[in-house]
Amino acid sequence: MAAALEIPEGTVKSRLRRGRALLREAIEALARSPELATSTLMGIETWAGALRARAGLPAGSGET
Predict the structure, then answer these.
(1) Residue 34, pLDDT score
(2) Is the pTM of the predicted complex or chain greater than 0.70?
(3) Cα 33 vs. chain centroid, distance in angstroms?
(4) DSSP string covering 13-56, please?
(5) How many CB atoms lie within 10 A of CB 27?
C-alpha cells in the first residue's frame, strides 16, 4: 500500500490503525446492544482473516 500511495509505511500503518478505531467507534455507537457491536466487529475480523489467508498473508490480530 505504501508503495502504491507513495507514502511511508509508518503512515499507512497509522492511518489503518486510526481507521479501525473510527470504525469500531461508529459500530459501537450504532449497535442496538453491546453484544451486536461485538458480533459485528468479530465478523469483520473473521472476514479480514479470510482475506489475508486467501492472499497468502500471515494471520494477524488486525493490528498493523
Answers:
(1) 95
(2) yes
(3) 21
(4) HHHHHHHHHHHHHHHHHH-SSHHHHHHHHHHHHHHHHHHHHHTT
(5) 16
